[in-house]
Amino acid sequence: TLDLPKTTDDILTEDVHLVxxxxxxxxxxxxxxRTAIVGAEGTMVTDSEGxxxxxxxxxxxxxxxxxxxxxxxxxxxxxxxxxxxxSTFYSFTHPTAAALAAKLAELAPxxxxxxxxxxxGSVANDSAVRILHHYYKRLGQPQKRKVLSxxxxxxxxxxxxxxxxxxEYSDGWHKAEGIVHHLRKPHYWREGDGMTEAEFTDALLDxxxxxxxSLGAENIACFIGEPIMGAGGxxxxxxxxxxxxxxxxxxxxxxxxxxxVVTAFGRLGHFFASKDVFGFQPDIITTAKGLTSGYQPLSAxxxxxxxxxxxxxxxxxxxxxxxxSGHPAASAAGLANIALMERDQIPQTARTTGKLFETTLKxxxxxxxxxxxxxxxxMIGIEFVKDKVSKEIFDPSLNIGLKVAQKCQEKGLIARPxxxxxxxxxxxxxSPEQIATIGAILRESITEVM
Length: 450
Ligand code: PLP
Hints:
Distance between the termini: 47 Å
Number of helices: 18
Shape: globular
Number of strands: 15
CATH superfamily of the largest domain: Type I PLP-dependent aspartate aminotransferase-like (Major domain)
Radius of gyration: 22 Å
Number of domains: 2
Bound molecules: pyridoxal-5'-phosphate
Strand order of the largest sheet: 4-10-9-8-7-5-6
Strand content: 15-25%
């Protein structure tokens, strides 16, 4: 057994050596305010003080089937007993990665039948673009390299993925990368003033068309978009937007990457969101998180047969891959996770319970400081405003999202603050009673900070 620190004090003493992600490192250094999570089961987690909390963020939008599911743990253990590690480099393969690739080909829409594995959503997105650069080079169009992304997007934290992420988030990193161009954020409530939703969609498409024409379609490799923007504040695009974007891209021979790192594996009630929820067919789907429900780090870049045909043609050396691409234990976790989802019909159930979650949280819209509650099923954002009519936000120094999240935690719910927005992305196995409890905790917490 491992010799781990047990008390909160012991954990925090050792934690000074850990660099947290997406954190105010100075604030952490000053006051040490941290929550050490020491255990988890089902929909709940336990902190080092012994508090039991509802995991309202599913780990980090990822523990879709809930914590401590024996089926997944046993599959990982069994895999490690049989084959701890071998790579999928060169001509090597192993049954677990092969079986998971076949399963994903079965679940993914259209002719998305070829899977390259990675170990994070960021890597899946980098891989997608890198593969497309390789693809166009082989087609004799090496200049077709630019990427259309959007304001509000979050695509990860590797060099290219952060460049594709919204410039505000990445402090303008995309300029260093040089190939990424950001289109307008498709957020009707904030940006569609004076327009109907249909007019707003037309305006977004017109802008996109002008951007394509000014950059030159012959220079643009792809458009990348999350079906619902997650970390950018849970932005659901206007009706019909995705299908029209995909059509426009097809007209200009630009590939469509659907970043389904969050929106896949039941979070919106289906295994994948592009075709089944939003009615468009991408050329590449990238996914991670719910693929293993977070039990192992794994991502997938799922390619169309057509793209694969080009990159696997004569003389096409594919110089891309990570040591842990298709790691046996991660692949086993993915297979067991999907089997569990299929056996228990988790995506199907999420269509009903997720809708209940959505309507319960949307009911908070009557509170004075709640500007918009948005999202779908188990992916919800609550935006706080100082003034409901002007939609003016609170001074960022007030840390309104953090204050509400702290109240929630005191009352037994983990929620994620993102500036003046609060994010909820729980496990998909919440009961109607737990959904009611979450709604009540949120209402009390918001009311107390008003
Ligand atoms: N894409 C989306 C839509 C995400 O939400 C995230 C992470 O939250 C990523 C990509 C990056 O995934 P990872 O953190 O596994 O690199």
